[in-house]
Amino acid sequence: MTYIFKYCIAFLLVCITLAGCSTHASNWKEWDTEKRTVFVASNIAIAADWGSTLNLTERYDENYHETNPLLGRHPSRGDVNKYFVARTMLNYQMARYLPDPWDKWSLSFTTIVHSKAASDNIGLGLEIDF
């Protein structure tokens, strides 16, 4: 695992832990339809990016490489899984603890970023493969 990746994972875990101190915590039952929809869309986008990035790890011999600086140029399958598990956990924590409207904005931003990454990967010939 790359040096920066370890520190990013540690940072994410600290953020998740500190998020428990927030007074804005809410659960799924308290979320409105818009927040639930954006949360589901963001997780679908993360899953698509995750699957296409996993496909990339099997195709380095075809000159594919990762462009996410947190993962490095040629991350292992395990590193990709660790990153996306942490990213999915962070997505839930942001939805749960950020106040309105920041919660929906962060989920929308996540949806856009990961949809673009998955779209770019598919455009390069990668597949969504778990």
Written overview of the protein:
With 130 residues, the chain is an all-alpha fold. It has one domain (3-123). It is globular. The model has no long low-confidence stretch (mean pLDDT 85). It contains 4 helices and no strands.
Mean pLDDT: 85
Share of β-strand residues: under 5%
The termini sit apart by: 20 Å
Q: Over the alpha carbons, how many angstroms does the gyration radius reach? A: 16 Å
Shape: globular
Helix content: 55-70%
Topology, please?
Blueprint: H1 3-19, H2 33-57, H3 77-97, H4 102-123
Helix pairs in contact: 1-3, 2-3, 2-4, 3-4
Brief overview, please?
The protein has 130 residues and is mainly α. The chain is built from four helices and no strands. The two termini are 20 Å apart.
Quickly list its features.
globular, mainly alpha, 4 helices, 130 residues, single chain
